[in-house]
Design brief:
globular, alpha/beta, about 230 residues, two-stranded antiparallel ribbon, 4-stranded parallel β-sheet
């Protein structure tokens, strides 16, 4: 039996009759049921636009700000709450300590969701890591979730070394930050629609900066997808 990628114990997840009778390759869960249950899924009530967990179904203050600033909103799909110890520990190991194999924990969920758009002809773009981070970590944590899918690499960082990372910025600093990207995609996107993927949705500033570049080049509908909110 496989060992859980998070705790190292033999997985306690069992296969059902449907999986056992399937002639295709068997899907073995990468983590045990105990670890899986430590992650908290987003549940209603959430912001109707960005999935922020809150006590009402009204538009959250972040989305109100973006609507006022840009004149439009872009719907975001998130799956889990970030403000839990399990998710913070996961990102500490995967994103900052270099445990590359942990992409397997959530990749199937994210890929399955994005494929619903790709089948409709949408493109997939991801928020990229800068060169300094890639050299230090050895991989891009967002791209790693979507291995095997065709990615449109349209965004590059203006500052690749010495850049203050989003995780080190206070909330107000994130909200007031300038666009960190250079656009290197087609001059005319001919109304093609795109999913923009990132790992965590905090204030939405990074995603909206990316969206504004696509909109400036005649894109169609946009959607955001993030693992945690």
């Amino acid at each position: 039996m496989a060992k859980c990628l998070l705790c190292g114990k033999t997985s306690d997840q069992t296969l059902g009759l449907k999986e056992l009778l399937c002639f295709g390759p068997l899907y073995v869960p990468p983590i045990c049921l105990t670890c899986e249950q430590t992650f908290v899924k987003l549940q209603s009530p959430v912001c109707p636009n960005c999935d922020k967990q809150q006590t009402t179904h009204k538009l959250c203050k972040d989305c109100q700000k973006w609507q006022q600033h840009y004149g439009y909103l872009i719907a975001n799909k998130s799956f889990y709450r970030y403000d839990t110890q399990a998710m913070k520990d996961y990102f500490e190991r995967y994103k900052f300590l270099g445990e590359y194999r942990l992409y397997q924990v959530f990749a199937p969920l994210l890929v399955q969701y994005v494929k619903t758009y790709l089948r409709l002809g949408w493109g997939l773009v991801v928020i990229p890591s800068d060169e300094e981070t890639l050299k230090k970590r050895g991989y891009d944590q967002v791209k790693s979730f979507y291995q095997g899918l065709e990615l449109e690499e349209y965004f590059y960082h203006k500052q690749n070394f010495g850049r203050k990372k989003q995780s080190h910025k206070a909330r107000a600093e994130r909200l007031s930050s300038n666009c960190p990207f250079i656009y290197k995609g087609p001059a005319d996107l001919k109304q093609r629609s795109f999913v923009i993927a990132d790992d965590i949705y905090t204030t939405g500033s990074t995603l909206y900066h990316a969206a504004s570049l696509l909109k400036a080049h005649n894109c169609g509908t946009l959607r955001f997808v993030t693992l945690a909110r």
